[in-house]
Specification:
The protein is mainly alpha-helical. It has two domains: about 280 residues, Fic-like fold (Orthogonal Bundle), CATH 1.10.3290.10; about 70 residues, Winged helix-like DNA-binding domain superfamily/Winged helix DNA-binding domain (Arc Repressor Mutant, subunit A), CATH 1.10.10.10. The chain is about 60% helix and about 5% strand. It contains 15 helices and five strands. The protein has a three-stranded antiparallel beta sheet. Strands 1-2 form a two-stranded antiparallel ribbon. The radius of gyration is 23 Å and the shape is globular.
């Protein structure tokens, strides 16, 4: 099928409402738009640069922790949570009680992503894996009663307070299992050659249109993108996350998804998606470059600590994954006593690596602010 000839689906009359029933996507696709082909080439090249760059960085997994934390923050923000990256990396006890629900949703997203990436080593990217990931996502948060880990068996809707005033009504629950089975076949179909980035762009649209869960569809659909890229070895490590791009262009994100259904305009959605891959890859490469520069600077600074240098290097590695911390956590992580931890923290503050956030004499919190700043921008 030529992408320009795509037909998204049809509206079917139900009792007092109409549901949108998407057509299957496991078909042979052909790119017939020169601009789309150019954007695909551009995005492929930049994604390849990101993949190569990330493989050259020693201890890259320490830095990926923060990429995943930022993704969790931004993907959840699209759904209305208010947690920022500084709050997301803190312990629950330091979070304002009014923000704890939002904070927990971000933590669940991070846990779901980490578990899903680990499970790819023994499970294919499948509906089974998505259901397992969804169960983690909704554990103990808003939505915990909305069938975590199960496809929906009732009608849901998007926007509005009920079916009668909904902005969009996804397919009837009776068709969800078959549509998701088709989507899974499409993701793994090797007989009809479709460029990987086009395939996952189509798959993300189709997933959001099916809306197979009662809650958490946006977050799982965005998580699906990274899982696909890792599973198909376009990325050696999970270093590309599109939620930041989607959040910054949220209106366009929703408008382009909607336009596929209302105008059969799959081409425009894919252009937007590929532009997102290109820009996000470019930004991620720049972030890695700044991380390398910062690491060089701080490693040069800790030379001044003399005999403490070996422990200071371990402390730096810890901070790359936990840039806001306290003395108790440092002592536990480095397996030293609290006095040694406090002295090390004091050394880092004198060097300008750490700043103290609370102003208290006890229960103080410290921030590796120069590093955090790289993920705020």
């Amino acid at each position: 099928m030529h992408i320009s000839n795509f037909k998204a689906g049809k509206w079917v009359q139900r009792y007092r409402y109409k549901s949108f029933e998407p057509y299957v996507v496991d078909v042979a696709w052909q790119i017939d738009n020169p601009e789309l082909a150019m954007l695909l080439s551009r995005a492929d090249i930049k994604l390849g640069e990101l993949n190569a760059y990330s493989q050259l960085i020693p201890d890259v997994d320490f830095f990926i922790k923060m990429h995943i934390m930022k993704e969790g923050t931004q993907s959840s923000r699209i759904e209305g949570t208010q947690t920022n990256i500084d709050e997301a990396v803190q312990k629950e006890e330091y979070i304002d009680p009014e923000k704890k629900d939002d904070w927990q949703e971000v933590q669940n997203y991070v846990s779901a992503m980490n578990r899903a990436i680990a499970n790819l080593e023994k499970l294919p990217l499948s509906n089974r894996l998505l259901r397992q990931t969804h169960e983690i996502l909704l554990q103990g948060v808003r939505g915990k009663h909305k069938l975590p880990g199960e496809f929906r068996n009732s009608q849901n809707w998007i926007g509005g307070s009920s079916l009668s005033d909904a902005v969009f009504i996804p397919p009837h629950p009776d068709g969800v299992a078959d549509l998701m089975a088709d989507l899974e076949r499409f993701l793994h179909n090797q007989n009809t050659p479709v460029p990987h980035l086009v395939k996952i762009g189509i798959a993300h649209y189709q997933f959001e249109t099916i809306h197979p869960f009662l809650d958490g569809n946006g977050r799982i659909g965005r998580l699906l993108i990274t899982l696909f890229l890792v599973d198909n070895q376009l990325l050696h490590k999970p270093t590309l996350y599109l939620s930041d791009f989607f959040e910054k262009h949220k209106i366009l994100y929703y408008d382009n998804l909607t336009r596929v259904r209302t105008h059969n305009d799959l081409t425009q959605w894919l252009k937007f998606f590929l532009e997102g891959v290109y820009r996000t890859s470019e930004n991620s490469i720049e972030t890695f470059k700044r991380i390398i520069q910062l690491r060089s600077e701080v490693e040069h600074q800790i030379i001044a600590l003399g005999k403490k240098q070996a422990l200071a290097k371990l402390f730096l590695q810890y901070l790359y994954g936990k840039p806001i911390t306290d003395a108790a956590d440092v002592a536990q992580a480095l397996e030293v006593n609290i006095t040694t931890a406090l002295r090390l923290i004091d050394d880092f503050m004198k060097l300008g690596i750490l700043t103290e956030l609370t102003g208290y004499k006890r229960n103080r919190i410290f921030s590796f602010d120069k590093y955090l700043k790289l993920f705020r921008e």
